[in-house]
Specification:
With about 280 residues, this protein is an alpha+beta fold. Helix content is about 40%, strand content about 15%. It has two domains: about 30-95, Arc Repressor Mutant, subunit A (Orthogonal Bundle), CATH 1.10.10; about 105-280, GAF domain (Beta-Lactamase), CATH 3.30.450. Helix 5 (about 110-130) packs antiparallel against helix 9 and helix 6 crosses helix 8.
């Protein structure tokens, strides 16, 4: 069945202004009506530890939240007891566990999305002999929330809960591409503040426009050589724009001769079937 596509939305204007860096003592500035110092301290610790690329020592966490080591020691103990953070095997630092990810997966919209998407993902994986992933946005990151492994001897595997900056991923470009213009502007505002130094927002927007035009995006992986990311959007119940997408990390396997555009078309068709199940009144763009 041919896929209906609309014309690309208005292109947001990309400012050349360099975002200012917020000092750790100002972490994070948010409007609030009530004060709950202990809770705020715990949430700050969770955000810092989960964003760190390596285990953080108590002193490093204390500096990041602008508190003394003694002030956060008990908080770290409580977060560890409740399973939100854990110690590195060497005992030299703390890392975030997947508990928040597990709790988030229990939300009804996410659970419904996964339940509907998994059968289509299995069918697509069997058809292509490739792995398939389900990805959603979370703040300025993309997160893998479900996956089906290839039935072939070889495949590309990623742990559930794996996250990556939205601006550095193929999925992020597709998620951005299929948002209404006002939401794109809001996302760009956030991305300018949080984008890693190596991010190219001009290229991010150009790739997103290509995805909007074609209905999918084919792009060489920037993290794994020899992998081509093929990604297509999904609209879930209650979503205004694209709420998730399917991604096939296409690898070359002897005996297979997949044309990336054929893979993209099959991926888009599977994504559209998920959308129609979740929102039967909606015609995918």
């Amino acid at each position: 069945m041919p896929t209906k596509r609309n014309a690309a939305g208005a292109r947001p204007v990309l400012s050349k202004k360099t975002p200012s860096r917020r000092s750790s003592s100002q972490w994070p500035l948010r409007a609030k009506r009530y004060n709950a110092p202990a809770l705020e301290k715990g949430l700050q610790i969770l955000e810092i530890v989960s964003a760190a690329p390596a285990p953080l020592k108590t002193e490093e966490i204390a500096r990041s939240v602008g508190r003394s080591r003694n002030e956060i020691y008990r908080m770290l103990q409580v977060l560890e007891i409740y399973g939100y953070i854990g110690r590195e095997t060497s005992g030299e630092g703390y890392t975030a566990t997947n508990k928040l990810f597990v709790l988030g997966m229990r939300k009804a919209p996410i659970a419904s999305l996964v339940d509907v998407a998994l059968p289509e993902m299995r069918q697509l994986s069997d058809k292509l002999g490739q792995s398939v992933r389900l990805v959603v946005p979370s703040d300025d990151q993309i997160v893998f929330i479900a996956g089906v492994e290839s039935t072939e001897s070889f495949g590309f595997s990623v742990h559930l809960g794996y996250h990556r900056p939205l601006v550095l991923s193929t999925s992020g470009r597709v998620l951005f591409a299929f948002q209404p213009p006002e939401r794109q502007l809001a996302w760009l505002e956030r991305l300018r503040r949080k984008a890693p130094p190596e991010a190219d927002l001009e290229q991010f927007i150009a790739d997103s426009q290509e995805a909007r035009r074609d209905g999918w995006l084919i792009r060489q992986s920037v993290t794994v050589e020899g992998v081509t990311d093929v990604c297509a959007p999904i609209w879930s119940a209650g979503s205004i724009g694209c709420a998730a997408n399917l991604i096939v990390p296409l690898i070359r396997i002897v005996g297979q001769n997949h044309n990336p555009e054929d893979v993209a078309r099959a991926t888009r068709e599977a994504a559209d079937r998920v959308t129609r199940t979740l929102r039967p009144h909606l015609s995918p763009e």
